[in-house]
Amino acid sequence: MEKWGMLTNIYLRTVTIFVLSLLTLGFAYLSYSSAGPQYQKLLQEERSLNKKKEENENRLKTLEELGRLLKEKSESLALISVALPKDNPGLPELFVELDNIAAYSGVIQEMQESITGNQVALRKKTNNNEGGEATLTYGAVPVSFKIKGSIPQIESFIEELYKNLRLIRVKSISIHKENEASGQSDNVYTASLQIEAAYFLSEEALNKNQSTDSSYGSK
After folding, report:
1. Comparing C-alpha atoms, which of 161, 89, 81, 84 is closest to residue 118?
2. What's the pLDDT score for residue 151?
3. Residue 144: its H or E element
4. Is 120 helix (H, G, I), strand (E, B) or coil?
5. What is the mean pLDDT of each run of 10 residues along the chain (219 residues)?
6. What CATH number is associated with residue 150?
7. How many Cβ atoms are within 10 Å of 75's Cβ, its own excluded?
8. By CB count within 10 A, which of 5, 43, 172, 209 is most buried?
9. Is the pTM of this model over 0.85?
């Protein structure tokens, strides 16, 4: 009888453990069944967010590249406007540049003035992007001035003049030594220069100049 009671207790414990195991597995299955779709949904949302993040990063890179290109274009346009002002000879700016070059070279400007006369409009054929020819019309305003200094200083002035961003052509230059009566040192020379400073001439400005009886040439 006692033995029978022991077997019964063991059987009941075994059944209880089995039932609890089934209940645990069932609960785990139900939890997985309910959490699985939510987990998959979260994974999809994460992939979607990562994709959007990547797209935004690519857009940002594109914007940064566009900004860089725009800055380069703006800087190029700024340099072009300095080298070839539009519809304006830009004489005040040119005279400032001549003053700066003279100060850098160590020469003394004796006189600086625009030559009396009409500005000249020049037409030049250039190659365009399509491989054909395009006509570029630009103005050239003549300017004359004198400088004093040693030969190396005068040479330095002319070299810096050609290095200047403004498109300038030296038409003529003559150098002579100062007279002893002037009291200048033996190595002081005077250089007389005639230059032409170019500027872009639009069709509108060209027509306006033609209507005011300006003289024109071709090149």
Report:
1. 89
2. 92
3. strand 133-149
4. strand
5. 57 62 59 61 77 79 74 67 73 86 89 53 50 63 89 93 85 82 72 86 65 42
6. 3.30.70.60
7. 10
8. 209
9. no
Residue 219 in any domain: the answer is no
Residue span of the structural domain in which 36 resides: 1-83
Domain match, 65 and 114 both:
no
Choose one of 48, 83, 118: the last residue of a domain. Answer: 83
pLDDT at 74: 67
Final residue in a domain of this structure, among 51, 83, 115: 83
Same domain (yes/no): 123, 70:
no
Question: Given this model, what pLDDT does residue 209 score?
Answer: 57
Structural domain includes residue 216: no
For the CA atoms of the chain, what is the radius of gyration? Answer: 43
CA distance 40 to 24: 24
Cα three-residue angle 191-195-197, rounded to 5 degrees: 145
Count other C-beta atoms under 10 Å from residue 150's C-beta.
Answer: 16
b/e 94-127 (16+ beta carbons within 10 angstroms → b): bbebbeebbeebebebeebebeeeebbbbeeeee
Asked if residue 101 is part of any domain, the answer here is yes
The single-letter code of the amino acid at 94 is L
Q: Are residues 40 and 74 in the same domain?
A: yes
